[in-house]
Design goal:
With 478 residues, the chain is mainly α. It contains 21 helices and two strands. The protein has a two-stranded parallel sheet with strand order 1-2.
């Protein structure tokens, strides 16, 4: 039975409130005031180290996603007025979807998604070797070590978002808000399921780390979310994100001079003809001709984009709402194993989305200049990880002294530790202090895991320009 009063609740780790509207408003305030949200203004969406403020950052992209989520939520609520336990929860429903969308990229590293590859590549090749060289692990603890190695080599911005809001920023958000951020339901130490397995889509990427498994379990238990299942409002956030991407990359590419207005039209025309798609082309053709007839040259693309975006967004929101409500019970239970915009493969909207995605890949993501910037980002991040790797080479005894401001023989480590965030160090201390020392070998493995998390937390939390500046500083480059 669908009853949103069991999902949108007052549960919170500390100081729960008595009124749902005040609880939701508290979440909004905490999120909007969070430093990690402000840092998104200096993190890449597609174009690393971009100086043109008109080109999207992670923050401006997240604002657009939040608006789309608000639109979808309000459209859904109009269709199910005073049903499904939503009486007096409409504002909470909308706000939760909106704030989840604002938070959805909060765990992403600098320099875009390519940075996730850089972090995982370094950790699997260099980080794990450091652990292996540090001490031998007995057969009885080998499985535990392998699990933590799998976890630490699977950095993902979605999983990092859960860590940011619960451990690093300690925002004390409601369990409802935390659950809605959990886009994927697989732990980073778990194997990726095959495509034909249940929950294969919901588990296609890591959704949380070993370090947050306890809080995730607690949230899911409180909100009656079964293992591997998703919170219903997360589907809205995902659809809002997918809709936002459709025009954004093309618009930014035009602002950057990578594409011209006529290039955009011709690329869409060619791709539509190739796929036998007519809905999008008819829309684009109509607005292309109107823009050419009605506007001066510098404003033609703006008019075209405004009209196309408004028409396409409205149509997609209507479509997403229908998919949501037609599969409402599965979505409410979190077992719906699809993205809303990918469910109906034969839909004209799905084909239109595929056309725009293909153009982004071919004409934008594969652009030589963009890939050059991504390579620079990869170099910066791997160099930073290398520079700080000396902290991973220390014994647990020496590192404990280091974080407690005691002197050790490694003078480089003494200087490096002072560059790390104090909040990140506190998160490390809290995690390690809670560990049992009954099995010393297991303790040492787990301590190193949290030390590696500390390093990843610091580097993944950097903005593009801060990472570049830190790279130059530690590389002695002016």
């Amino acid at each position: 039975m669908i009853d949103y009063s069991k999902k949108i609740t007052l549960h919170r780790e500390l100081y729960p409130m008595r009124d749902i509207d005040m609880s939701i408003e508290s979440d909004r305030g905490r999120i909007i005031s969070a430093p990690s949200l402000r840092r998104l203004q200096k993190k890449t969406q597609v174009f690393p180290l971009e100086l043109n403020a008109a080109v999207r950052s992670r923050l401006t992209h997240s604002l657009e996603v939040a608006q789309n989520a608000r639109y979808i939520s309000k459209t859904i609520l109009k269709k199910c007025k005073n049903k499904f336990g939503l009486e007096n929860l409409e504002d909470a429903f909308i706000s939760t979807a909106e704030m989840t969308s604002l938070l959805h990229d909060i765990g992403n590293p600098p320099f875009g998604h390519f940075a996730e590859v850089a972090i995982n590549d370094w950790m699997s090749k260099k980080g794990v070797k450091i652990l292996d060289d540090l001490f031998e692990v007995s057969v009885s603890n080998q499985a535990f070590k392998n699990m933590l190695v799998e976890d630490i080599c699977n950095f993902d911005g979605n999983a990092q978002a859960i860590r940011v809001v619960t451990k690093l920023q300690r925002l004390n958000l409601s369990y409802t808000q935390i659950a809605s951020i959990l886009k994927y339901t697989r732990a980073a130490y778990e194997s990726k399921p095959k495509k034909n397995e249940p929950q294969s889509y919901l588990k296609k990427k890591p959704g949380f780390y070993y370090s947050e498994k306890e809080i995730v379990n607690k949230v899911c238990d409180a909100l009656d979310i079964n293992k591997g299942c998703r919170f219903p409002l997360t589907y809205i956030m995902e659809a809002a994100d997918d809709i936002s991407y459709l025009n954004a990359d093309i618009e930014d590419a035009v602002d950057k001079g990578i594409l011209q207005f006529d290039d955009v039209y011709n690329l869409i025309k060619i791709e539509c003809e190739k796929m036998g798609e007519t809905y999008l082309f008819e829309l684009v053709d109509k607005f292309y001709k109107k823009a050419k007839e009605k506007e001066d040259t510098p404003y033609q693309f703006n008019l075209f984009l405004t009209l196309t975006r408004a028409s396409l967004t409205h149509a997609l929101v209507t479509h997403v709402t229908e998919v949501y409500l037609n599969n409402h019970e599965e979505i409410y239970n979190g077992t719906f194993n699809y993205a809303l915009l990918e469910f109906d493969k034969q839909s004209k909207y799905t084909k239109a989305i595929q056309v725009l995605q293909n153009i982004s890949v071919k004409a934008i993501y594969n652009n030589k200049d963009i890939q050059t910037l991504e390579l620079k980002g990869h170099k910066i991040l791997t160099s930073l990880l290398e520079s700080y790797s000396v902290l991973l080479e220390l014994s647990d005894e020496d590192f404990t002294k280091l974080v407690n401001d005691e002197r050790i023989s490694c003078y480089v480590s003494i200087r490096l530790i002072r560059r790390l965030s104090s909040k990140h160090i506190v998160a490390y201390k809290n995690s390690v202090n809670a560990l049992s020392k009954d099995n010393i070998e297991k303790y040492k493995i787990e301590e190193w895991y949290y030390r590696a998390r500390l390093l990843i937390d610091y580097i993944s939390g950097m903005t593009d320009d801060f990472a570049l500046d830190e790279y130059r500083t530690l590389s002695a480059i002016k």
